[in-house]
Amino acid sequence: MDFASITYEVGDRIATITLNRPDQLNALSPAMIAELRQAYEQAEADDDVWILVVTGNGRAFCAGADVTDIPDDGRVVYEESYLSTFPQWEAPQEGTPPFRTMTKPILVAVNGICCGAGLDWVTTGDIVIASDTATFFDPHVSIGLVSGREVVRLARALPTHIALRMALMGRHERMGAQRAYELGLVSEVVEHDQLLERAHELAATVNRNAPLAVRGTRLAIRRGLDLPMYEAEVMAEAFRERVLRTEDAKEGPQAFVDKREPTWQAR
After folding, report:
1. How is the chain split among helix, strand and coil, in percent rounded to 5?
2. Which of 156, 205, 222, 234 is most buried per CB count within 10 Å?
């Protein structure tokens, strides 16, 4: 599939999605949002894809929504009739991957400026790494807007007072990559020129593991965060039991006994 505002490549069971509006700092336009949705759906449905990598082209990862291109009512984002589908009644997701419903893990490689809606990838990604040139901030209050879901998610990824500082300082203060690492917002800081190589290296490492077990583990954590502990434990054990019925669940122990690398089939 050809895209105009992103690139989509598949190799070695990795789907790499690159935000590709560098002259606009990869700001999210309605067209880019639509293309991202198609790319997420395509990767989720592709049996040859076991993990997604999302990054940006140029000096920004994503500068949030393109305020010059998104109308006030947001209708251009949807092909369906206005308010005719459930997603239109939810908080606008813009570029956010469907992290609550998809099964495959997402690795985010923040290559530069990351702000506003760009923070959604950081707070919903499964593994997040950053270039040493990356910066993070939330400009909403600086342009007269309330920071909505972005800062609500941020406040669950950072200590509350740190998230509030970022939200209330707006565009007048930026968090560097090292500080983001110290606070746990990203799990690794990489030299800028090595970022994509490292992202693919980490994705390949994830892919050395049983893909259905990876997906079940990811879902157990993601879904469990919204549940009381007991219900989360029961759900996680139910996922474990489902995966026990797969061929890969037999292949793993057998490969260990045979002292060889397992051959995963995702079934």
Report:
1. 45, 15, 35
2. 222
Looking at the chain, the number of H-run helices and the number of E-run strands are 9, 10
Q: How far apart are CA 29 and CA 237, in angstroms?
A: 41
Examine the domain organization and report whether 117 and 11 are in the same domain.
Answer: yes
Q: Which amino acid is at 87?
A: P
Contact 65, 30 (CB under 8 A): no
Show the tokens assigned to 54.
């999302």
Q: What is the CATH classification number for the domain harbouring 254?
A: 1.10.12.10
228 membership: H or E segment, kind and range? none
Neighbours of 228 (CB within 10 A): 8
Residue entry with tokens 């990351």? 114
pTM for this model (two decimals) = 0.94
Range of the domain at 244: 211-258
Number of domains in the chain: 2
**Banded model confidence at residue 82, pLDDT cuts 50, 70, 90:** confident
Amino acid at 118: G
Q: How many CB atoms lie within 10 A of CB 201?
A: 11
Would residue 265 count as lying in a domain?
Answer: no
> Do residues 53 and 107 make contact, with C-beta atoms less than 8 angstroms apart?
yes
